[in-house]
Amino acid sequence: MTDSAALPPALIPGYGGGPFRHVPGLLDDQLFWEGHLHTCAQEEEAEELLLGADGAEAMRLHNLLLGGEKWPVFSVPLAGGRRLHVVYRAFAEDEGVDYLLHDPGWESAELLAADEGHFTGPGLSWAELVAVADNGLPGGSTDDRHARLLLLLPAFGDDAVPAGAEDRVAAALRARTRVGEPERLAAALLEEQGPCGPVHWTAAPRGYRTNDGEYSFRNPAGAYARDAARLERIARALAP
Predict the structure, then answer these.
(1) In the chain, what is the greatest distance between 2 CA atoms, to the nearest angstrom?
(2) β-pairing, 83-89 with 71-77?
(3) What span, in angstroms and rounded, lies between the C-alpha atoms of 174 and 58?
(4) What is the DSSP code (8-state) at residue 161?
(5) Neighbour tally for 92: CB within 10 Å
(6) Using CA atoms in the order 199, 46, 86, 27, what is the torsion angle rounded to 10 degrees?
(7) Which residues are 231's β-sheet partners?
(8) CB-CB contact of 147 with 176 (8 Å)
(9) Helix or strand holding residue 64 (H, E)
(10) Is the pTM of this model over 0.85?
(11) Predicted local distance difference test score (pLDDT) of residue 235
(12) ∠ at Cα 79 (169, 196), nearest 5°?
């Protein structure tokens, strides 16, 4: 793996760690996607559909990314100069993949989800996920809508995915991976939705969206809840 000439963020406000490295070329690697999505496949059937014969090699790459001195980071642009950062947190014995939202006017980035042994999330509804993936904004690690959707998929959870969602995920799998049965895998991933499973999204009294996930930062009644002002600014920043 070689570092891209594109510069990663020197720092992400309010988030420790690094130094970071930007490696967008990994998004063209089948093995990267198998490792990145592996926690989305909770049942044996989905795991077999995703990993196939390359599973051991894919997980070796995944563990390598979580074990280096520089932390791989991928970014997706949002309106208003905002960014979603996907950071491979390579702390020894505390590794994981963090999904962070940052607005240039904020003092600190907001952690939406952490894909690790003690998963926290989900942090994105289906509407938010698709809106970010399909926004067409230039910059970041890739402008490919399929890669953006798969990159953010582990941070997603929603019990009300619309008709056509399986086709959307299958199209992304078909475009960016070599899995043998993308339609079956897409159906399994949308049914399982990672370690926390689907959550229900509702409108808070002030109009912004929250969910009821036990481990979600966006559940105002949960143990990990952000305060109302932070929940509102997260939702506004991600509004489709």
Answers:
(1) 49
(2) antiparallel
(3) 18
(4) P
(5) 7
(6) -150
(7) none
(8) yes
(9) helix 55-65
(10) yes
(11) 96
(12) 40
- Cβ of 133: how many Cβ atoms within 10 Å? 22
Residue 222 burial (C-beta neighbours within 10 Å; 0-12, 13-18, 19+):
middle
- Alpha-carbon dihedral 119, 43, 181, 75, rounded to 10 degrees: 0
Residue given tokens 């970010």 in the structure block? 132
Q: Is 230:222 a contact under the CB 8 Å cutoff?
A: no
- In 3-state terms, what secondary structure has residue 114? strand
232 Cβ contact list (under 8 Å, min separation 6): 204, 206, 208
Q: What is the CA radius of gyration of the chain?
A: 17
The 10s digit of each residue's pLDDT in 175-200 is: 999 999 999 999 999 999 988 899 99
How far apart (Å, rounded) are the C-alpha atoms in residues 155 and 86?
A: 10
Q: What is the pLDDT of residue 17?
A: 86
pLDDT of residue 4: 46
pLDDT, block means (10 residues), the chain with 240 residues: 56 90 94 96 93 90 94 95 96 92 96 92 97 94 97 97 97 95 97 93 90 96 94 93
